[in-house]
Amino acid sequence: MMKKLILAAGVLAALASCGNRPSSAPTETPEAKAARMEWFSRAKLGIFIHWGIYSRGDWSESWSFHNGVVSMEDYFAQEADFTAANYDPAAWVQLIRESGAKYTVITSKHHDGFALWDTKAGDVSAVKSSAAARDVLTPFVQEVRRQGGLKLGLYYSLIDWPREDYPNVFRAGPARYDIDKEPERWQHFLSFNSAQLRELSEAYNPDLYWFDGDWEFSSEQWDAPGIVRMLREYNPQVVINSRIAGNGDYDTPELGVPVVRPQSPWWETCMTINDSWGFRKKDTDYKSPDTVLRMLVDCMSLGGNLLLDIGPRADGTIPQEQIDMLRELGRWTSKHAEAVYPSRAGIPAGHVQAYTTLNQAGDILYLYFPYAPNESIEIKGLKSRIKKVRVVGTDEQLPWKLYNDIDWSAAPGVCYISVPSRVLDPRMTVLAVEMESPVTLYEGAGQVISFNE
Ligand code: GLC
């Protein structure tokens, strides 16, 4: 049952201090930021988890009542079905690790305010009043820490539509109140958010905060710099996504792989596994492993990460299609590990009909083929000399041939690598093109013969 908010005045006064501080720019050198972001830039794949009372599967997370698809009462009646009866956090974490992901982000609280941990920040909708009647976040975090190999991210919605001190509730219709006219009521809400974030930092010390919902207010109104500063007091190394009104560390494009490289050197595309964030009974429109792999490699080739979402059911079971997807990703990422984690953005499109990345030293060009080449693949404009071509994840080396490597032309010869069908991966073949020196490219429009004698 959803309860109305009542916070004792004393608690509020104690909490208010963190919401009201003046903002100031963080003093961090670019080198220090690069060091802090290092694990993120090497992670490539993360697994997002949307889990809450909406996981019964009838209506979408939070948006369903906000958009008037279901009444707030019916929406919160789902607490009675959030049983977590078959929840196995060890198996969840094991599966996520098996996919090859290096981080995971779980919804600690979505826009509906339902908290997965036993929050003491106010009399609000939280897991203890659901059928599960127990904190389900702590065992997940404990497993992440116990099994190792994964960074922990917590999704936290700044928006909390059901609360009496939050101005907006329904998309259509008037707001509850105007924050300029009732600044104390708004401060009350900000203090509540701060109190929850303090709880999360104290209990779990996450490596990453994944904010959402910043679009409803400005940075100043949220006191976003104050929130970031507070989180950094708990963990100076914490990584924060962009949805905190411009105060985060990396860009977070949603549901579409960018066509050009995003401006930030650090970014991540978040992506649903079917068409929904949370589990939906009717949503069987699963992406294929080929599709998801292409999205992953596309992100990698542009220097970013893929944060792939799963939606467990309210009883804690993960749908088989989602399990299968993570396992298939795991098969591919473990076979091609050398071309995944240490890689960085590749070369511009146009040189080769494939996704590309480079190793850190820049002297290995990785080529990822979502299609089977008919006979050979072509690379043009490659000025550096090739030393060796390997099929990643196998012992195979491949022959290559350079055509028209002419001394009077600035355009280097065109390289053809023979790719026999026996070396192809069932989903995406990866070649490592090893160079004698870091890759340099010819980007010109070609040349006609000329002699200056
Ligand atoms: C959107 C939606 C939300 C979802 C999130 C994940 O901002 O509000 O429902 O959780 O994206 O990226």
List the total number of helices.
Answer: 11
Level-1 CATH class name of the largest domain? Alpha Beta
Q: How is the quaternary structure best described?
A: single chain
| CATH architecture annotation name of the largest domain | Alpha-Beta Barrel
- Number of self-contained structural domains: 2
Task: Give a brief outline of the structure.
With 453 residues, this protein is an alpha/beta fold.
Description:
With 453 residues, this protein is an alpha/beta fold. The chain has 2 domains: 28-335, TIM Barrel (Alpha-Beta Barrel); 344-435, Immunoglobulin-like. It is 27% helix and 16% strand. It contains 11 helices and 15 strands. The protein has helices at residues 9-19, 30-43, 63-66, 72-77, 89-98, 137-147, 183-204, 219-222, 224-234, 289-301, 320-335, and strands at residues 45-49, 103-109, 151-157, 208-212, 239-240, 268-271, 305-310, 344-345, 355-358, 364-369, 376-379, 386-391, 400-403, 414-418, 429-435. The strands form 3 sheets. Strands 5-4-3-2-1-7-6 form a 7-stranded parallel β-sheet. Helix 7 links the parallel strand 3 and strand 4. Helix 1 (9-19) packs across helix 7 (183-204), helix 5 (89-98) packs across helix 6 and helix 5 crosses helix 11. Residues 1-25 have low confidence and may be disordered. The structure holds alpha-D-glucopyranose. The site of alpha-D-glucopyranose (GLC) has 7 residues, from loops.
